[in-house]
Amino acid sequence: MDLVSFGKWNQKKLHLTNGLNTFYGPNESGKSTLRMFLTYVFFGLKADERERYRSKLDGQLGGRVVLEEDGEEWTFERFSHKQNGHRVVYKQGEVSNEDRVKQLLKGLDRFLLESIFSFQDRDLQTIRQYQTDDIGKLLFNIGLTGSERISELESKLDNHSDDLFKKQGKKPELNQKLTELKQLDTRISEANEREHEHHTLYQEVTGLEKQIEQLKVDEQQLLQDIRHHEKLLQSKSSIVNYQLLQNKIQKLKFVYNFPRDGRKRFEELMEKRQSFDKEHNVLTSTIQNLENQLTDLKTKSQYENWSINLTECKELLNRVQRAQSNVEKLKKEQQQLTFEFNKIQDDLGLTFEAEEMKELSLGHYTKETWRRIANQWEDLQSKVSSLNKQYRAKQEELNQEEQQKEELQQQMLSETEEEKLQERLDDLRLSEQKELLKEQFRDQLRHQQNSLSHVKQFFNMAKVGIPVTLILAFIINGVFNGFTSGVSYGLGAFGLIVSIISIMLIQKQQQKLNNMSHGQEEANSYDEQQLMTVKQKLNKQKQDQNKLDEIVKRIYVIESNRSDIKTDLDHTKEQLSELEKQIDQEIEKFPFLSQYELYFWPNVHEQLLQGKSVSEQLIQKEIELDSQKEILHHDEQQLKELYTLYEPNTSSDQLDILSNVMQDRLEQEEKWQREIEQKQQWIEDYHQELKQIKAAQEPYEQSLNQLYRQASVDNENEFRRQLQHYEEYLNLNEQLDQTYQLIYEIFQEKTDQILKKSYDWDELEAWLSDKQNQQSTTEQTLENHRQKLSEKRAQIKNLEEDGILSDLVHERSQLEEEIYELAKKWAVSKTAQGFIRDTKYRYQNVYLPDIMEQTKKYFDKLTDGHYQNLSFTQDETILVQHVNGDWFNLNQLSEGTADQLYISLRFALNDSLKRLINVPFILDDAFVHFDENRKEQVLDQLRRLSHDQQMLYFTCYEKDLEHLEGEMLQLNVS
């Protein structure tokens, strides 16, 4: 199933298997939507149903279902926006017509699918809504038709007919209308009694109407008689002429049996006879001329004396010509081969005879041996040369490396010098450690210098500030205490001395720090330069040592390679010595090889093979030449024998002249023989044509004699006289037909009756005049009656002006119409009930017994053997027999047991029809109200049915899956 767009489903494909397919999902997961999708694709849905399943995603509705029947794939497709929503069916990818689809479905429609091959729990709920006494009848109808609709229809028809009419009823509509009609008839009768005069007038009017109608009939009959006699008098000449022609034709009745197409057949046959006679005469004359020409040709020809036939003679001449050509060709080829053989020997410098060359043993092995020796000699020589070059190259490379080694050793330090430098490096590194300590000291010194700098700045300021301060203090003290005080002068002197001492200490300390810093920088600069120099020398020594090691390694590798090359060179020279021995052996077998270089040996072999081939061809050509000369001599003797037949007094030893003469004679004889054969064939063909003409003429002669017999004559002259009488007869018949047609246009189908009678035309004219007078009298009487009728109707109208009688009559007419319509409806209902009863009776006696038998088997299995028999009664209900032998009505059974009987009926109906059409059985939550035991029994039965029929089981209970097998599809549409 391909659900493109249907309800909740969109762009979803479901693949089903042949057996049981279980669709599991909770309520509102789309199970019933899948069932309706199948109904829509196959049979369509009503407008309101379609709108309910139209997709809310894209507003579309449709999809396709693929099914397989007898190995063929059928695709059913329906989309609301395509083909006006109609179903389209494809077979093997091609559109199929509706007749083939109907043949596939075998009458299956939506009603049959839903009533036989599908059911759901809702069907059981519907049954439970019926009254207890009606359930038996309902199941009986389901057993008949597969649906409860028949029961519903019967009930509706019964109710409808009872609503219309009951025999003893009062409330039905038709009963009430009949009562009203009786009452209305009473009122009309009373009115009629009161209006007796009206009734009398009404009877008089009726009598006048009847008289008028009778007068109309009489008048119409009179008019018809008058018109008939007028037509007779009008057709008088034609009728008389027709009767005269009939008399003449009667006299010629002896030609009645003359063939209708006699003239045409006679003329055609006579024409054919003349044509055949003409052809016969021409062929006879031609045959005579050909026989004369044939005699002349046989007199000229000597072919009858030949010892061979023309084909053999032609082959003889061709053979002679080919032999001459072959001899010349072989001679030229022999010369060419001799030239080629001599040229090959000249190129090789040899002097062999052809037989000697032919006997040389130059097989493929020899060729390969010579090529191998030449190639090996060249390869080994090349390899020795290459190895010598490689050996010299390695020796030169070794000399260069030895030279580099010596130069590098001269540049390097001695071991004593290197040890001294190493000891110096150790000392310098120790000094370097010391220098690190000094560096730390210098850092401290720089810190002190920084502090000293700040102090120096302070003392620089103090140099000026202290004296100034002391002076200002002295002056202030002098101002306040007087300059004469001893204390003032003592304080001033003390301050001066302290200032001088402080300045001197600061300058001394600063000078000391400057000297320490300068001396340390000089010592540090000298030690670092020496350490760097020592390190450079040692690094260079190390690099040179590494280079020396690399050179030593390369020298070792070169010496190893040189040794390998020396070994290969010695081995190659040994191979070369062995090859020289093989060369000597080949020269011993073929001494002429000594005059050629080794590299030329393969070419020598090729030329020798060519020379051997040429020598063999040369010897073969000599044999062929001798054979051709022998053949040519034998054929020459045969030509001379044939030549003497035409030239008995002359002879010729020249083969070319013999061949040319006999070629001319052969061509002449071939021409004569062709002419002889052709003329003989012509004569034979013409004789055959004469036979064919005679055979072709025979049917026509037989037809002509048959024509004479049909015409009752013996010869041509009698036939021609009979033909004249027959043509006269035909002419009279044609005139008779024309006359008859004129009369028929007047009297139509009465024409034959008119023509059979004889007429007194004067009497007819008198009768017509009398009838015309009678017509005038009748018209006058009719007019008088019409006048009286009008007067009487006017009187009745005056009596009815009060409206009582007319209203009652009108009301009665309307009531009768209503009763008529209600009676028709009641009759339709009763007729439909009769049809249903007849159909049910036929199904009850033909199909129902088998279905009930199958239902009994299913019911026995589903109830674990508690109920073993079923029976249907005359009042259209079902009885079931318990295992103990008691019979029960359905209203006596439990609700679950009644459901089991219903399911058994549905299974039995499915079995009866699935043999005719292979349709899946669809169950949608069919057993939701069953207890576990009953559900397990019915699911087990369902599993068995799926072995030979596809099952689609929709369920919302996960526990059902434990009892089922086959394909399980979980639905989770939200």
TrEMBL record:
Lineage: Bacteria, Bacillati, Bacillota, Bacilli, Bacillales
Protein's name in the database: Uncharacterized protein YhaN
Segments crossing the lipid bilayer: 458-480, 486-506
InterPro entries: P-loop_NTPase, YhaN_AAA
All residue ranges annotated as the YhaN AAA domain in the record: 2-196
Coiled-coil features, chain-numbered ranges: 174-232, 273-347, 377-425, 562-589, 768-825
Organism of origin: Aquisalibacillus elongatus
Keywords on record: Coiled coil, Membrane, Transmembrane, Transmembrane helix
